Write a sequence for this structure.
DNA sequence: CTGTTAGCGCGTTCAG
DNA sequence: CTGAACGCGCTAACAG
C-alpha cells in the first residue's frame, strides 16, 4: 500500500491541498506548516505519483523521440541534442524504439503510447507514406525522416539530393571517375532514393556516364558497408571512390577496403553522409556531408511546440498549417578524399 | 475536449465497461456489440488514454533505462539489447538521460519520474555511493555501473579488474613494455579506478615496474582519447602501447596516434574495453575486452523482474536480498595488437 | 455476456 | 493562507 498525499496530510495535520502546494512549490505556504509537511513526507517515505498528476493536469512536460533503433549512433546524437534543448525549457525527453522487429499490430500500441507525452518526434524510416497517412492521432507529432511524407504532418529533413550531389561532385573534382554508391538503389524509396538521385545528378552535371553496376544496395549498417565492398571486389567491378550513404556505412566500407588491401584515399576515396561525432576520429578522418544537426533539432522543436501550444484550444478555426522543412547541408572535407586536382 | 470512453459508449449504445473490455481484449464480448464499439471508436476518433489506465492498473508494463548520456554508443547498444528482451515479454523500454548537465536538485525529480515505470535500470556513472545510498524509493531499481554501490540495491557490472588485467597482460605478452593507461587515474573512483587496478596487477604479475607517468586521466570521450595521446607526445613520455579504458577512448587514441605519425600496431599497440559494435570495423580492428553484453542484460532483467514480481505483496517478510552480479569478461584480439611473441 | 458501483492519487474549483 | 468537495479517464469487482 503506497503512501499517498492524504497520508502525509493526516500526519502533518494539514489538508491534502497544502501538501500539494508545498510539493509543487505553488502558492505560498506558511514556513512552519511547510516544515511540518516536509517532515511528514520524509517520515512516511512519501513519493509523488506522477501518473496521477499527469492524468489530472493533462500534460506531462515530456516529449518523446521515437527512433527505429536504439543502437544507431545517429539517433543517439539526435536525442542528446533534443534533450539539451528540452531541459532548457524544463521538460524531459524520453526515447522509445519503434523497432524493426514488431509488426503492424504494434503500430496501434505505439500510437496509444504517444498519449503519454505532450508531443512526439517520430523518426520514420521503415514506414511508407501510406502507413503514415493512416496514422490517426490527436497527439502533436513532427516527423523526422528523409522520405517525403503526407503533408498532414510537419516534417523535418535534410537536403539529401544536394548533400549527395555535393559529396559526389567533390569526388569527381578530386579525380574520381568510378564512384560506387554504397547503400544506393535503382528503385527504392526514401533516403536511399534521394541520395542516389544526388549521385546521378552530379554525374550528369559533369557529363560523365552513369554505370548502374556501381549502385550497391545493402543493409544500412556497419556489416552492410563491408559486405558491399566485398561484393564489388568479388565481382571485379572497378571503382576508384565510394560514396557511402551514411557514415556508419562508410565505416564498414573502410573496413572492407582495408580487408581488400585497398588504400584510402590513394587507391579509393570515400565520402560518407551524416557527420557523426566519431567520423572525425576515424583514420583517416572521414570526409562527409554535414546535415546541420543543430538547425534540424531547432526546427523539429519549433514545429512541435507550435502544435503543443495550440492543442489546448482544440483544432477548430486555428488549424496550424503543417510545414515541411528541409535543412541545408554542407561538405566536411577530411582525409578519406584527396585534395582537389 | 478529447473523446473519452464514455463518449464511445454512448455512441455505441453500450456501457463504458464494455468499451473497455473490447479495447483491452479482456472478456468475451458479443461479436455484434464488438463491431458497434469499434465502429464508434473509429467514428469519433477515440484514442485510449494510457495515463488513466496506468493510474488505475498500478502498472505500466514499461521499464526505464536511465543512462548518463544518449550519445554514447555503449548505452545505445545496451538499450537495444534490453528492448529486445522486454519486447519478448510484451513490455516496453524507454530510455531517459540523467545528464551530466543537471544538478543535484534534479535528482529528486528524476526519482519522481521513476514512478512512471514498473522498474528502472539505473546506470550510475556520476553518482557517488553516498548519493546512491541517499536514494529513497520504493520503485524496483537495479543499478548498472562499475563502481561498487551500497548493497541495498541490486547491481550488475563487469569484472573490470580482470578485464583490464587481461588487456594489459596481452600487451605485455606481445612485447609491450611501456603501456599508457588512457582514462586511468591514480586516485579516482569507479570504472577508472578498477581498470587502473587491473593495469597495475598485470604489471605486478609480470614483475615489471610501474610508471605512473603512463597513467593519463582524461574525459572519457573521443576527444579525450586524442588529447591524451597529444599530451603524451608533447611531454615526450615514451610508450609502446596504450590500454584505453573504453573503446570510445581507443577510437580517439587511434586518431591521436595517426596524427602523431605513429603506426598501429607497429609503433604502438592499442587495446580498448567494451567491444562496441563499431570496434570490429575500425582500421585496424580494435583489440578489446568484451564484457559479455548479453549475459549482463540477462542478469539485469532477471534481478529487476524479481523485484517487480515481489512488489505487489509489499516488502514485509519476503524481502528480496539484493545481489551484486559481476559478469565474466574476455579478450577479443584484432589488428591493433601484434601476435604474441 | 453486459451494466453498476467505486475509486486509483492528484489538482482545480470554491468556501472559509 | 488553508480546507472540503468533485472529477480527470479508466478498470476491478461484483451484479444482473
Amino acid at each position: 500500500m503506497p503512501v499517498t498525499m492524504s497520508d502525509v496530510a493526516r500526519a502533518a495535520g494539514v489538508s491534502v491541498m497544502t501538501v500539494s502546494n508545498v510539493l509543487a512549490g505553488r502558492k505560498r505556504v506558511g514556513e512552519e506548516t511547510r516544515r511540518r509537511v516536509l517532515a511528514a513526507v520524509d517520515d512516511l517515505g512519501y513519493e509523488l505519483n506522477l501518473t496521477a498528476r499527469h492524468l489530472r493536469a493533462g500534460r506531462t512536460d515530456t516529449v518523446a523521440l521515437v527512433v527505429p533503433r536504439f543502437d544507431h549512433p545517429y539517433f543517439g546524437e539526435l536525442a542528446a541534442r533534443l534533450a539539451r534543448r528540452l531541459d532548457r525549457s524544463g521538460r524531459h525527453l524520453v526515447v522509445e524504439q519503434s523497432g524493426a522487429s514488431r509488426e503492424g499490430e504494434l503500430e496501434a500500441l505505439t500510437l496509444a503510447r504517444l498519449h503519454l507525452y505532450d508531443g512526439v518526434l517520430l523518426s520514420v524510416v521503415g514506414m511508407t507514406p501510406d502507413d503514415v497517412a493512416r496514422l490517426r492521432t490527436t497527439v502533436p507529432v513532427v516527423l523526422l525522416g528523409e522520405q517525403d511524407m503526407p503533408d498532414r504532418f510537419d516534417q523535418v529533413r535534410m537536403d539529401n539530393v544536394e548533400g549527395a550531389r555535393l559529396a559526389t561532385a567533390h569526388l569527381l573534382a578530386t579525380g574520381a571517375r568510378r564512384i560506387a554508391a554504397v547503400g544506393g538503389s535503382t528503385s527504392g524509396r526514401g533516403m536511399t532514393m534521394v541520395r542516389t538521385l544526388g549521385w546521378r545528378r552530379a554525374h550528369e552535371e559533369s557529363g560523365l556516364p552513369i554505370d548502374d553496376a556501381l549502385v550497391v544496395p545493402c543493409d544500412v549498417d556497419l556489416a552492410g558497408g563491408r559486405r558491399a565492398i566485398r561484393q564489388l571486389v568479388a565481382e571485379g567491378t572497378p571503382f576508384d571512390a565510394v560514396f557511402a550513404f551514411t557514415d556508419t556505412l562508410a565505416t564498414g566500407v573502410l573496413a572492407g577496403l582495408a580487408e581488400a588491401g585497398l588504400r584510402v584515399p590513394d587507391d579509393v576515396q570515400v565520402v560518407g553522409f551524416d557527420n557523426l561525432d566519431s567520423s572525425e576520429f576515424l583514420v583517416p578522418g572521414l570526409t562527409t556531408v554535414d546535415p546541420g544537426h543543430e538547425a534540424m533539432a531547432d526546427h523539429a522543436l519549433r514545429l512541435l511546440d507550435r502544435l503543443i501550444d495550440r492543442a489546448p484550444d482544440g483544432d477548430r478555426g486555428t488549424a496550424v498549417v503543417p510545414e515541411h522543412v528541409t535543412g541545408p547541408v554542407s561538405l566536411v572535407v577530411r582525409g578519406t578524399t584527396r585534395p582537389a586536382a
